Amino acid sequence: MNVLLVYLTSIDYKRQDIKLPQIRSILFAFSFLFTFCIITALSGCGGSDNGGPPTSSKQAEASLPTRIAAAEKSMQQLDSAIKSGLIRNALILKEYASILQTQKPKLRALVDNLALDAGNDGAIYKNLQNRLATLKNEPDLFETPLARYQEANAIIDASQPEIYNLSLIDVVNVLADMSDGSLPRIESQSKNETLAANRSEDMGAGSQLIGNPSYGQWTNNGGTSVWAWYGMYSMFRDLTGGRSYGYNQWNNNRDWSYYNDVGRERHGNLRNKSVNPPKSKKYGSKRDYGVNKKSYGSASSERRKSSYGGSGSSDSSKKSEFSKKSSAPASFRNRSTYSRSGFGGK
Prior knowledge:
The chain has 15 helices and two strands. It starts with a helix and ends in a 21-residue tail after the last helix.
């Protein structure tokens, strides 16, 4: 376009049969045609075939088989990455659980249940599996084909190894808090620092998991929404002297958690993630988690912030840097080992 403009404007119009007004008309027509072609091409790039937003409900419905197949493939790749030891925070979770089983034998049943999240039998992975099964087999639960399409994309994002790695932050930090500070938190300041920074109430062990539909649900108790833990996680209530937390108290006084402040849109169950969401942002560290909202505008930006050590490959030979160094639980006693790993706890 610029070359044509330079060429035409360099013509000696006194020697040409075409006059300046005619040339301007040609330029205008060419510019219009060029712009139309660019817009048409760009609209094709964002089509639903590659995960972009559909332009109509009919297009979303037509594209659903492709997106559901992509979600299934993404879950298979995640399963392979977990089994190959490529999820860095899962390795940390295993070691923390191993240490706590010795430190707190009375809490072993609870610790063992949390340790399941290091594999594909844990609450977070099972929640993704259930979401995929609902997406495939229960279309009537979705208001529109577009909503179903969006859920497929959310599952694809949440099952990326780098992003799934981040979803384990809260579970690791729950175990860190249960160790009474002997194990550092990850991707967060220490418990006392975040409580002070957010002017939050100490709601006891497991509080980072309140609001996460993988571990419990909000129930109606006399007109008040109260958090109820699933199954074995009800031991968290015993650790707080049998205390239950209503939504208003939790919302007004809660501390930071990865799920509630960063990952809810991707990791939340479709039917539950919009139930009683937190009304304000909390802050977990001096990093970008919960601080810079723009850091989490896309899956790619979240992957760049991830502490995941691999490339997303399921090749078992491509172990993360952490997996090569973390075979001995005793290493957690040396805090300097994690000086470059994003551990902010004390």
